[in-house]
Amino acid sequence: MTLAPISCTHSSVDSAPGSTTGSTTGPLFRACLQPGGQPRRSLLAAGLGLISTGFTTVGVAQAQPAPWSPVRPVSLIVPYPPGGPTDILARTLAAELARDLGQPVNVENVPGGAGAIGTRRGAQSPADGHTLVLGNNQTHATNVSLLPQGGGYDPVRDFAPIMVCAALQHIVVVGAELPVRSVADLVALARRDPGKLTAGSTGPGSASHLALELFKTRSGTEIAHVAYKGSAPLLQDLLGGHVNLSFATTPTVLTQIQSGRLRALAVASPQRSPHLPDLPTLAQAGVAGVEADAWLGLLAPAATPVAALSRYRQLIAAAMQKEAVRSTITKAGMAIDIKDAPEFAGFLQQDIQRWAAVIRSANVRLD
User: What SS3 class is residue 278?
Assistant: First the structure.
């Protein structure tokens, strides 16, 4: 509809004798005014604007955007071989995500380079919401201090945190023949004969090695480090009495602890073990500051859209509350350890700095 123009200047017949055209006192001009003096055309325009604004507001309120969803299969990169606890966690979460997103979530095992090869692939993948990485304390906290160029990626700048989901706790275990029954006994024995006791790890710079170095610093002891190529030969020598103790993950030693072939003294974690609830933490046993969980968390490439990150965070948080998911994680030897995205981001910065200090102090070098 077209509105005819309205003129608010009057003709000479509306003017008193001697007045000039364009006077603002005549009756025709006064008819174009509201009592408050606003021109009617301005009022009409303002009214139309209010009507338009009202319709726009209603439209926005009614048109809620749909949650982000992938348009093709999602890749969940696991930078380790298949079959271990990390892989079990990844496949459990992938199944939950696939059911909720309506797209396959494919677990891709990309081992090698202390987890750096797969992690680097994740960092370099398109940041479109179709790539996730299952990172841990090695890939995102210690590699940056141990590997040349940090493994070829920045654990903070190149990734967006989604959620920490679980942790592999390290148990302080000793051979059954060692005459110690507590952490206090172990510290006393180590101080009595500095350097005589031996502690095995799964390799230089591994989580078990760094946990040992942190324990030595906090307890004021000297214990000789013996590096093994993996957990199998380490466990064999522990059982055979060729090495005295170790900081070993729960799945590695739980059966031997329960059978009495190894003796557990404490757990190097902020929380007690769900598998050994009567076992104290190291802090409870008298050596504070030795929290050495191998945490496991989901991340995405840094520039992943916020809508995609929000959807993943929501879905993973919901999945981690399901009893079936929690039971699968616990049965695989892990502990539930949930940190949301803001907490994860702050924790990651602290973990990088903490292990960097341990690595410098102990002069840890990779073979």
Answer: coil
Q: CA 103, 105, 110 angle in degrees (round to 5)?
A: 155
Give the tens place of pLDDT for each residue, 167-192: 999 999 999 999 999 999 999 999 99
- The Cα 168–Cα 269 span in angstroms is 9
Summarised one tens digit per residue, pLDDT across range 53-82 is 444 444 445 567 889 999 999 999 999 999
Q: Read off the tokens for 79.
A: 């930078």
Res. 49 pLDDT band, cuts 50 70 90:
very low
Radius of gyration (C-alpha) of the chain in whole angstroms: 34
**How many CA atoms lie less than 13 Å away from 120 in the CB half-sphere?**
15
The pLDDT of residue 18 = 39
Q: Kindly report the length of the chain.
A: 367
Classify domain 170-267 by CATH number.
3.40.190.10
Q: Which residues, listed in sequence order, are joined to residue 247 by a DSSP beta bridge?
A: 172
Q: Are 298 and 132 in contact (CB under 8 A)?
A: yes
Kindly state which CATH superfamily the domain 74-167+301-351 is placed in: Bordetella uptake gene, domain 1 (3.40.190.150)
Q: Are 240 and 246 in contact (CB under 8 A)?
A: no
Beta strand pairing call for 74-78 and 131-136: parallel
Rounded CA gap, 263 and 257, in Å?
A: 6
Helix (H, G, I), strand (E, B) or coil at 269: coil
Contacts of 144 (CB under 8 A, 6+ apart): 150, 151, 154, 155, 352, 356
- Residue intervals of the chain classified under CATH 3.40.190.150 are 74-167+301-351
| Residue 260: pLDDT over 60 | yes
| Distance from C-alpha of 161 to C-alpha of 145, rounded to nearest angstrom | 20
Q: What is the pTM of this model?
A: 0.81
Measure the CA–CA gap between 296 and 137, rounded to whole angstroms. Answer: 7
Which residues of the chain form CATH 3.40.190.10? 170-267
Confidence of residue 156 (pLDDT cuts 50, 70, 90): very high
